[in-house]
Amino acid sequence: GIIRAMTKSPLTVSLLLACTGGSGRLRLSGIFRYIHERAPNWTTVVRPFDSSTLPAAGYIVDGLHAGEFASIARERVPVVTLDVEKKLLPRFSAPVSDVKIDNGEIARLAAAHFRELGRFKGYVYVHDPDMSEWSTIRERRFRKLVSENGAAYAALPYPANDSFRRLLDTLTGQPKPVAVFCANDRCASNVLSACKSAGLKVP
Description:
alpha/beta, 9 strands
């Protein structure tokens, strides 16, 4: 998407965000809310990314657009990255601000939510497809929190191909009720399909 500040010398700020998932749409919604509240004289244009979005006066980029980092890094303009793993970041010529998600806090909130629902006999964490750093942080924190009560616990890879059968076996083998914490929405969708295949009821 493109945000253009309507000033005497208009500036273009390009947003390279993946908006197919819920988290991406929430990020975009937050940016638009900020514009509405703080910069009502700005205009916005939303369109798919292509080379015409380059160059710009600045960029807001998420990790799914890491392939564009190299070209952006050469432009010597300010960049804001959204929870991008350090290994994906090239050396930028201009200042970079990285906004991080507190993945440990997300895991704490998930564990607290399950505690509010009642005592579960088993817990399962299901990773994202890439076993990303953020997913590993969530899993470790979640495991520590839910293992304090001695409940059964399992951490599983993303449910696809051979790992889908492993997920089915784990879900059916866990003592019930079992709480499942999924890395993201796409993962949760596959887990729901696995539960349906196994005849497990999901509230």
